[in-house]
Structures are given as structure tokens and as C-alpha cells.
Amino acid sequence: MAGSLNISGPEGSACAGDFNNDGVRDGADLGTLLASFGVDAAGDVNGDGVTDGADLGALLAVFGTACP
């Protein structure tokens, strides 16, 4: 079964999940997401306005990959 994952980055980011804009989704970005989890939208990967489990899953799906 093939599918696709469509995630959006934070406003102003060229790369989904790259919150510090260093060109890779890594531990620093995971830290941002975890610090925002359930608190605010700073770690919102999927663009729904909250940082939650869906965002964590989306970030982990691309974790360790460079931005295109």
C-alpha cells in the first residue's frame, strides 16, 4: 500500500518540521516540538494550530532527513 504524507512547516519555514531553519529535521526540532506539546503551536507540524501527537508522528516520519 503506497501513500503520501503531507505536512506543512511553521509559517516562514521552507521545510516542514525544521523549526530552527538549519536545513535538517533533528533533535533540536524535536526539542522545540516537545517543549510546545499541549502548550502552544510552536511545534505545530501539520498546521492545525496545536502541538500534539499528530505533529510528533509527522516529525518522526521525517526525522533525520535533510530539507529538500
How does this model look, in words?
Helix content is 29%, strand content 0%. By secondary structure, the chain is an all-alpha fold. It is globular, with a radius of gyration of 11 Å. It starts with 26 loop residues before the first helix and ends in a 6-residue tail after the last helix. The relative contact order is 0.24. The model is unreliable at 3-10 (pLDDT under 50).
Search tags:
68 residues; disordered N terminus; single chain; mainly alpha
What is the topological layout?
Blueprint: H1 27-36, H2 53-62
Helix pairs in contact: 1-2
Rg, nearest Å: 11 Å
Biggest β-sheet, characterized?
Answer: none
Question: How many E-type strands?
Answer: 0
**Judging from the principal axes of the Cα atoms, what is the shape?**
globular
Tell me, rounded to a whole number, the average pLDDT: 87
Determine the N-to-C terminus distance: 24 Å
The percent range for strand residues is under 5%
Helix content: 25-40%
Output the helix-strand order: HH
Task: State the secondary-structure class.
Answer: mainly alpha
